[in-house]
Give the backbone structure.
Amino acid sequence: MQNRETKRNEKYEKILEAAIKIFSKHGYYKATISQIAREAGVADGTIYLYFKNKDDILKSFFTYRTREVFAKFKDEVKKGKNALDKLRRLIHAHLTAFEKSREMAIVYQVECKKRSHLSKDKIKEMSNMYMELVKEIIQLGQKEGTIRKDLSIPLVRQLMVGAIDEVITTWVYTSKKYSLSSMTDPLMDLIVKGIGNDKEK
Amino acid sequence: MQNRETKRNEKYEKILEAAIKIFSKHGYYKATISQIAREAGVADGTIYLYFKNKDDILKSFFTYRTREVFAKFKDEVKKGKNALDKLRRLIHAHLTAFEKSREMAIVYQVECKKRSHLSKDKIKEMSNMYMELVKEIIQLGQKEGTIRKDLSIPLVRQLMVGAIDEVITTWVYTSKKYSLSSMTDPLMDLIVKGIGNDKEK
Amino acid sequence: MQNRETKRNEKYEKILEAAIKIFSKHGYYKATISQIAREAGVADGTIYLYFKNKDDILKSFFTYRTREVFAKFKDEVKKGKNALDKLRRLIHAHLTAFEKSREMAIVYQVECKKRSHLSKDKIKEMSNMYMELVKEIIQLGQKEGTIRKDLSIPLVRQLMVGAIDEVITTWVYTSKKYSLSSMTDPLMDLIVKGIGNDKEK
Amino acid sequence: MQNRETKRNEKYEKILEAAIKIFSKHGYYKATISQIAREAGVADGTIYLYFKNKDDILKSFFTYRTREVFAKFKDEVKKGKNALDKLRRLIHAHLTAFEKSREMAIVYQVECKKRSHLSKDKIKEMSNMYMELVKEIIQLGQKEGTIRKDLSIPLVRQLMVGAIDEVITTWVYTSKKYSLSSMTDPLMDLIVKGIGNDKEK
DNA sequence: GATGAATGAGTTTTCATTCAT
DNA sequence: AATGAATGAAAACTCATTCAT
């Protein structure tokens, strides 16, 4: 038999999942508590037993997802044998994280990623966490000789995050005719080699 | 003396500008018609003489800006002497367009870019317009031998748009201590050469 | 023709009167904005054009009434020829003020008088204003020799206000079979002479 | 060992006391069942084993207190040797009853005394009980010759109750720098002799 | 008896939109 | 054309009360 705590968590997650579904369909502002409650199969008031208010649902999702996702990212980078392997694993993990749930991806990209509900500090913190991963990879690659020496780490982070996000966004707005993770290698190739032609160098 | 049309446009633009200012400060949903009216120096009801409803203001801004911005993009690409020059001009024009007004950049990035108020068609249309520019540049470069032959044009578009957007977003959330257009060359360099080290090839 | 300002005030007072009616019938907490709006013949939202919130309606009434009532009290006291005449006029004005509207009396006695919605400062201020009136009367009477020398002014205020309030409250809960102002002389007599028998002194 | 009834009463009183504390702090309407339950150290649902509903808590308190207090009042009046002694004992008992607990005094004055939760019948009943005490004292005093013959008993009740209540209310809103029962003699003096000067008679 | 999670009716408040002036 | 007071639908949130455990 389940103990009380387990049941508590179950309902918490049920509401969170319902909220993500509704947020992804209507956007944060047009989504109503009643819709979320109905989707979760609970009464409106029940939501307030688990979340302070509407905003708290979104923030909770964000915190929850970020923790989960970054743990995975760090783990994958650690597993990589060399800089390029680490890089590939990071890109792959990033794409895979969002591939699992289109709804989650939409909410994350639209409502969380782009400020509004997140404090500047939260955004900066996340940006810094990603930067650390990038830094580790680049510095290793520079030692190995596989990565250029003249790089701005913040800019590389911007290139990577920006490109990956756009790939995700495009996939989200497309009818998902291809797998998101299948974009790993093409994207990796582009980020590593650039679009220029070196043959003549 | 001004003719009627000119006067009409004056007020139309005054409201549009006020709206952008307010949207950028509070976000689309928290912004109220009254705030916009006050900022524009008109009565609440007057806004409805120029716009169908609140949503129409945002859509109008988007259409207006997109037209303006893409005209500039096309123009710059046309002026470029060769593929890389065209590319550099596109990136520079893109960054400069958003540098002029932080407020505009915020609204564009947060409210327009990321769906919500825009139809899928609008987004696809914009994506396609950008794709055309990228295609033109890449195909020229491939003829010239300055750009790799094995490229997916949609992916290159995603890399470019994603990276540029992230650079803009980072700049927006920073205290603007550097000029956005100064990022043109570093970004260009990264996009063209990638982060990999070729010396040993 | 009425000017805009006049019309504004008209609606303000219409809402205030409706509120008093509803508050007196159901009490502050059970009264709803919708009931007040219906009674005033306006839409719910209109109330918020004139009052910050529900609480503000009650506070406004209190401020409004207090100012009005105390102006009258002062005026009457000023008109009195001597201490006992002044006293009689004060008691009479006090009773008359509440006689005009049973509804007003209920709200005043129940919701305002007895804290809850009023700051301690407001209550103290009111208490002090009354005290000033009492002080003036007593000091004059002491000079005239019509009032005892050994009196605590605060206590006299408490005796008077308490007794008058209780007379009003009793009247309010009775079916108003007598006029409130007819209680002036009996009350005055009791306050001045006390219940004791002096004949034997 | 305690019997069932005793245990029942223990919890019943614990809840009643907790309720008074919470009511006095937040007022009846703003006080929540949860707050009362927490204060009493029981679960929310438990309260409904002892009281029909929220209103019933207040009514029970009132009934309970009234019974207790009037028993004391009657007892004291009975003990008095003569009219004035009885009167002094009544005033003293009245003040002392409220001195014991500031919280109780607040709830009694604000929530009970002034209708809202009490039926007109309850109020009248209470008023009549007090009237009986006053009547007894006055009629005795009139026989003794210590009290005026020309008195309206209801009005004397109003004078007394009103004055005492106001003394209590003032004390409650003050920081209790003096003892409430110390007001017995000054108040008694005022009620018996009035504020007028008899020396010249 | 005791618990406390769940309920959902009921309330305040906001604000896009309308329309008489 | 311009105004801005009035509208009322819609939404977030609260909390007394219930009932399965």
